[in-house]
Amino acid sequence: MSPLRSSWLVVAAVVALARPAAAAPAPVLRGMPRQTGPKGPVPEGPSAPTAATSAASPAPAKLTREAAEQARTVGRTTVRDTRAQVTHDTRAASVVTRRDLEERLPRSAPDALRFEPGVYVQQTAHGQGSPFVRGLTGQQTVMMFDGIRLNNSTFRYGPNQYFFTIDSRTLQKLEVLRGASSTRYGSDAMGGALLATPIDPSLELGGPRGWYGHSKAMMRTGTADGEIGGRAQLDVGYKGKIGLFGGVGYRDVGLLRAGGKLLSPSTGQPVKSPLFAADGVTQRGTGFREFTADARLVYQVNDKHRLTLGYYDYRQFDAPRTDRCPPVTAPQSECLTYDEQFRTLVYGAYDVHDGPAAAETVRWTVSYQHQHERRRFDRGPDSTYRIIGRDEVYTLGTGLDIGTRKFRLARGVDLQVHYGLDAYFDTLRSHAWNTFLDVGITTTATSQYASGSRYLTSGVWTEARLGLFDRVELRAGGRGSLVVAKAPGDLDPMIGRRPIDQTWGGGVAGGGVAVRLVDGVRWITNLDQGFRAPNLDDLTSRQATGAGQQYENPNLRPERALSLETGFKIERPRVELQLFAFQSWIDRLITRVRFDRDQCPPEDVVCGAAVYNVTLANIAGTSHIRGVDGAVRLFLPRGFGMRATAAYTWGDGPNPVPGLDPVRVPLSRIPPLNGTVEINWRHRLGFFASTALRWARPQARLTETDKNDQRIPQGGTPGFAVLDLRAGYRLQPHALVVLVLENVTNAAYRYHGSSINGPGRGLNVLIEVGF
């Protein structure tokens, strides 16, 4: 019987009946750690005794005032602001909890990170989102789902859409690790790591026959984009040994209404992208449809061993790329649409807890992923010409994470070591064709990637933590990596794609020190390396980007980063604070540079006709990213609380064109000074309300490719301040109602580098019912 169903009402029943209660035994706390179940946040505050404890009592004690209040509000969540625990406690990190996801109502997993320090979310389309972490995004940050790497070899330079393919309704928490972290997470972890943890089955002991079951239905709607959708989920199990959590979801999202058109700071004219409808607020090239399905089966073998099978499927349909629907310089009828954006993940995990000293904890995963993408470029209703492309990435992966027992080396000195390995192997299939609709003829075209390409990223790693007298904690670790890229070439002069056969190996290291100054106050300093080996997108891709038509560069070399951060973490009864200053040095940074039309493949008419052609290249020298980020949270009386975040990032690097002035130029798409403020209130009866402010200063520091990017207004992106109001009621675990009035002032705004303006004034509503 779960704690939510245990109450002092059982005590009253015992007294009234004057005989022992025939109650189920209290849940056994198993040795295996697990996340909160799908019924939502566990009630906090004074805990009611279990039925078994009540039955064993010879006489009922007099209820305290707090317990009496608990008895009157049984079944409701009596909550206070919780303190989310991060996995990387001595690093700059923050967590989005399940309750945050339920009460903020983000539209997607990227959207859920907008209130985290050091994170800035760019959107190329309404059905896409790419978090920047300390100035880096896309292939320069790593995404993990339940310990499984999601980055593959086609993650493109700059912002991409792939974090959007995680369904936020299936997540228990999202953790953001800021700063280079390649020792633990391998290639791509230069800016940081995005760590998603899914909801587990609750594994209750069940009723008289050992079975339990909970179901939930959700419905969500929004007025700014006409969203309508929902989800049905089920959590069933038997005797706390086996549990299944799963669900299906769907939503249909229409054209997004903004607060109005955005004006260019330098010209005062409306920004050309996106294209607006006649009403001046509806943005063309937005909207999509989405279907999700997931299932998670957990078998608790015993107190020490657990088996997990997971299946997560995301399918998005009919999602236009806003900055190319239509392109600024093209007829208004042209549109690039992602007909299908699918990601399927199937994996198994074996967990050990309380094992032998050298392997007290073990987690071993084996996974299979399939990423499917189908694009359609239409010339318009009057045209008989259509370009279609399809890419398939198949990934086999495995990861092993082992933690030793905490060894006591001497009085006040203890040591714990984590070590492991990981390997992910991609196989790529890429095709493209031209369709002449008037005559029904289809011809083969140059594919976006070299079909048949293969890519391996792998490594072995270790990280040790040494504690000294409960005052100092030292961290040190390293990784050895091996990355292999192979791609067939096509030496036909009409295509001119060279073969790739590259192998990169090397090592990275990292370490840090955390000093407890007084109780609840720590000074933390970390120095970590990051690296990213060129992937198949860098080496073989030909594609349209916001900066122009991009072509491959088979001669790229790995980029490497060194990240230094220092700051404070305060964890006191009434306040939490983290404040970090950071500096990153990046060698051989890969960025876009312009190349002339005479460098185009001879028969590539797209390249020859493009206004602006770009390729990727390593910049000679060292690029710098520095800044400050942090968050403060206050736990106030009478159910009130406040949280604020702020981040400033500044980046520059050598001029990609040697010999030109200035010698150093801004890095592309660095976010401006930005932050958030949230003030919330909650009542013991389950009511809650909050107000939230998101703000950003203007960003006028642009690199050359930024100035030619139609997503960025001439002169830079204007600043903004957007106010949201939230309210709701939670009857745990039976009902949840949330209302969010977003953009109260109907401001016209956009996040720097985005193709779309943010939503205008609108109401988002979530209704959940369950048992």
SSE layout and pairings?
Elements: H1 9-17, H2 51-56, H3 65-72, E1 93-97, H4 98-104, E2 119-122, E3 130-133, E4 142-145, E5 148-149, E6 171-178, H5 182-185, E7 192-198, E8 211-222, E9 228-238, E10 242-253, E11 256-257, E12 282-283, E13 288-300, E14 305-320, E15 335-352, E16 361-378, E17 385-403, E18 407-410, E19 413-436, E20 441-444, E21 454-468, E22 472-487, E23 500-518, E24 521-532, H6 536-540, E25 543-545, E26 548-551, E27 559-572, E28 575-587, E29 590-594, H7 605-609, E30 613-618, E31 622-635, E32 640-654, E33 664-666, E34 674-682, E35 687-696, H8 704-707, E36 720-731, E37 735-742, E38 762-770
Q: Can you describe what's shown?
A:
It is a single chain. This protein has 771 residues and is mainly beta. Helices cover 6% and strands 49% of the residues. The chain has a 22-stranded antiparallel beta barrel. The longest helix is centred in the first third of the chain and has 9 residues, at 9-17.
Keywords:
single chain, 22-stranded antiparallel beta barrel, five-stranded mixed beta sheet, 6% helix
- Give a short account of the largest sheet: 22 strands, antiparallel, barrel
Total beta strand runs: 38
- What gap, in angstroms, lies between the N and C termini? 14 Å
Structural class: mainly beta
What is the general shape? globular
- The whole-angstrom Rg is 27 Å
Quick check: average pLDDT?
87
Uncertain parts: 1-31, 33-81
> Helical segment tally?
8
* Helix coverage percent: under 10%
Portion in beta strands: over 45%
